[in-house]
Amino acid sequence: MSNTKILIVSHGHPDLSKGGAEVAAYNLYSEYKKREIDSLFLARTDIQAHGGSTFSTRNDENEILYHTSMGDFFLFQSAYKKHIWQDFKLLLESFKPTVVHFHHYIHIGLEMIQQVKNSLPDAKIIVTLHEYLAICGNNGQMVKPGSQMKLCYKAAPSDCATCFPERSAADFFLREKYIKSVFDNVDKFVSPSDFLVDRYVDWGLPKEKITMIENGQPKADFLPPRQLAKGECRGRFAFFGQVNPFKGIDVLLQAFSALPEKVKQQVHLDIHGANLEHQTGEFKEKVKELLEELEGTVTMHGSYEPHEMPGLLAQTDWVIIPSVWWENSPMVIQEAYKHGRPLIGSDIGGMAEKIKGGETGILFRTKNPVDLASKIKEVVSNSTCWKKYVDNIQVPITIEECADIHLKEVY
Amino acid sequence: MWFKKKSIKASESKNNDSERVEEDHKPSDIEPDSSFRYWIDICGFVKNKQLLIRGWAIESENEVVISLLGEDKIPAYLKGKVQEDRDDVLSHLNLKSRNLAPGFFQLYDCELLSGPLYLNLKSSEHEITLPLELIEISDEKLTSTYDEFLRLESDFDIKLDVDEVELETYDEELISDIVEPKKDTEIVHYIERVGTFNNKFVVIKGWVADAINDFEVMFSVKLENTPLRIIKCIKRERFDVAKSLELINTQEKHGFLLIVELAAPTKQQLELGFESTISTKTVKLDISQVLDHKEVEGKLLDTNSFNLIEARKWLIENLGASYFTEIKKEFVNLNEISTNIMVESAINCGESGIFIRGWIDNHLDTLSAICVSDGAKISENLLPLLCRKIRTDVNEAFGHLSNNYKSGFYCYSLIKSESKELAILLFEKSGEIVRIPLSVININDNEIMATQNVLVDVEPTQNNAFESYQKHIMPALHGIWGDRVKKPNTDSIKIYDYGTTPEAPRCSIIVPLYGRYDFVLHQISQFEKDATLEDIELIYVLDDPTIEQPLLSLCEDVSKLYSVPFKVISCGRNLGFSGANNLGVSQAIGDKLLLLNSDVIPSESGWLDRMLSVYDSTDNIGAMGVKLVYEDETIQHIGMQFRQSREFGGIWLNEHQYKGMPANLVPKFEITKSDTVTAACLLIDKQKFEEVEGFETRYILGDFEDSDLCLKLIELGYENYVLGSEKLYHLERQSQSLVDKGDWKFKLTLFNGWQHTVRWNNMINELREKNV
Question: Could you please report the per-residue DSSP string of B468-520?
């Protein structure tokens, strides 16, 4: 492996953009670096660079920032294609990686993959899929647009055209053909969940080209259970993540609101996450109303830094992930399990896959606050289950293990 | 002119002036008793074998007619002549009191003559023939004489604009042979009225007769020796004159009305010349009298060749603005006549026509004519040409109109000059004229809007639809689109090369682009993975200048990311489907052409290879179409058929059979004959495409060009096929022009269909019989 050179391409740098995919990409890169494999981390940013240059560095000379953006979100086309066929080309020809591993193409452009094929026909091209962007035009969520947020089970040009009336079925047909033509150049796809694998195979990716590898996590120790006061039950719940409709904040708040008074007095919900201010009027109003109503029971803490997570987890019993969309492999779940906290989550997609209802956590009917409320009532009245779940937790794979699998099986 | 009196009897006396041409007299030709006196001033050949001869001749005190003869006395063809007064000769011969014009100045065509030339002199009683010898004369002199001849000739030989009511003109020469002219013939005349109108025209009314022989009298008008143009000469019978002069036996019309054009106002006298075959007369006229238009109209009416409307129309036509400004004062308002009209729109259709639309209420039938005029020129009467339809809104608004009254109208009109101020003139039978100004819209590159305007009142289901297409819609639309679809000249063509096109490509793919250009990315990303497309030329024709910049920008990027070479060709304007394809083909170097729509995407690599191989192994093949499907795999095209539309007068329409059906329900075949196929994906030998001269550009905005092309191929003896074993995706209605869909497009399709039917009806019927 001594002549292996790995280029990891991410749509953001975790220092500047705190998303699961960015962190996962960076973790892999850091691990390779630790093993002294010649690697570069190329991260896109929308910040302007010195002298208008396409590249700059951050932290050290191997972490390169790529100053660019996308122009056409429908076909994932770069707005500055010259960045690709001139600057990125030069980078490829200078570094000559043997493996180019994309963790995203959004904000960067699918042309990047085409360019690698053009410049380094022998290099291996790997793409880790973190969401369903290629399949679904609605932000890759596979949720139909509209306030109802109906789940979508399969993409088809005529259905997609119904979701987006300004586009025709033929537009979606062309989109699919184009994306697949780019994907033809990819040697292997990686997915952090089986659920996502199934979706892509359903869509048309050859089964043998895609493999499931969980996102590796840095090693961490189980946190001790929270100290309970006399007579207190295990009733502290925490939510981590963006405060937006997809994450199901409103479902969560409605559930708490539906709790009988007696139970309400025994529980508390901490919401860690920002962006309430950026939501649209109706949703924002609804949330604000509920928060007011639940004053005393629910506390909004605002945003948090990743390294604060352990501390925040220590102060809670349960982590709730009430997302109304499929999710893939939410970092929250991995964090919780890493630190020994069980989860209550929606019963669809990645959540249903990762949380083993009845073993390591509880699943409730998606979008159903009444069901969630009853589940909360249950755990409050029967605290013994908490310990059972914690004992069953399987720690997510470490970054080292993840890197190993990549190096051995994928590259 | 110097001359010398010369008598045949006298011995020849040489003139001192050496430039003179002299006669050589042979004694045998001289008639001793004749008293011909003559002199040749100038005689020489101008141009090719044309003889110019000038001189004078007289016999005693009689007129002499000159002619030129060749060998065997074959007469030469007289091309032109001028009779000259030669007062100098007359005074010298003391013949001034006579009305003689002994001077002759003539041009003969001698091409068919050979041998020596002879001059024939003939009077009423005697005739002699003399040899003619030429002596050199300077070119200069000859040329200047010839010029003078031309000038004088045009005076003398005015072609008069004579009405049908007049006699036919006759060949003067014949008459002079047939009739023996009497002595002392005389022209008698009387001027009843002479005056000027607007200082631009002179009107002369009177009568004239050749008192003795009653030959036809011709007219000429001069002012200070400069000839004037007679723009109208009308003759009518004057029995009173004929009777009093005892001229009843001829058909001659003695009354005349002359309208003469004045170059500029003048105080001089006019010279009116009368000429019958053998006599002339000149009269000096004082033209200071001013006539008003009523008088002029009246004079025209008197001739019995016009009614009031016709007279006024003729006067507008010929006198133009000057007459117009006069009678303008007499125009009445629209509300003063019983006809009512509203022009709702008027559009300029190219170089020489306008299209007007509106409604008219002429239920009392008082209207005689409707014309379009710019104040100087006037159109023909449009009233019988208007295409009429029922306008329920108008019929309801005016209670006196029955439900069936056709008040709506539209019409194409050729106007004779392009002008800013056009107006409609209504001529009532009673003589009243109403002038309604028109505000004519220019197209300004908005051909679509103009087309919608033209089509809005068209009723394709009515019986008169075809007539309306022929008379109005076709000239209007072709006028509107004329410039747009014209073949571009080579210096306006720009070619952008991306990558290196193979030197000897097997096939050239031609793709027109309009509106959406992202198809370039989609097509090229699919072509990229097809190794069989390596020796193919790919040409995109930009048919939409508004997308040039973003297209070229996209092409730049695409060419850097993909290895498929291609060209973009543009001529800077939108040519339409036919023009764009023709342009692309004109630049293509492959032997075969694959015409491809931008919204067609291949399904499997190697498709073109397979198409070419089938094409090459099929005898006598013209065009080859292919199976096209929508994105959901249902059929979009698998050959076209003709269907005749009863509803729309029997127009032939192209149908795509099986459209929208799942492919497995459609009969399977590898290749089958199909008279017509779509040009969305069409393979053809370049030579055959050129043989039929490419796509026809008369189909406005597209439709029927592919059918037309296929039928042209059949006409030349080829056969067309559709390939069922290949499939491409045709994402129809993706690249159509971004224009409102409304029924004007449907009407346009029907109009195009009519054009197509007119051209191909017979052939289509033949083919259907054959196929049954």
Answer: HIIIIIHHHHHHHHTTTTSPPPGGG-EEEEES---SS-SEEEEEEE-S--THH
